[in-house]
Design a protein that fits this description.
The chain has 52 residues and is of the alpha+beta class. The chain contains 1 helix and 2 strands. A two-stranded antiparallel sheet has the order 1-2.
Length: 52
């Protein structure tokens, strides 16, 4: 399974991090990952989304 998160393109200061956390409802599994400014700057803008 693949999940895509789409946000407006923005920047964050170099000394800050965007932390995204996903938790399972009524469960013990959770996942988190860190997005740094370099990741956002290198991100591609999606003009159209085609779902297959």
């Amino acid at each position: 399974e693949r999940t895509v998160f789409a946000l407006e393109k923005f920047t964050i200061p170099d000394d800050k991090q965007l932390v995204i956390e996903v938790a399972e409802k009524e469960g013990g599994r959770h996942q988190s990952f860190v997005v740094e400014n370099d990741d956002i700057v290198r991100a591609n803008v999606i003009d159209e989304l085609s779902i297959q």
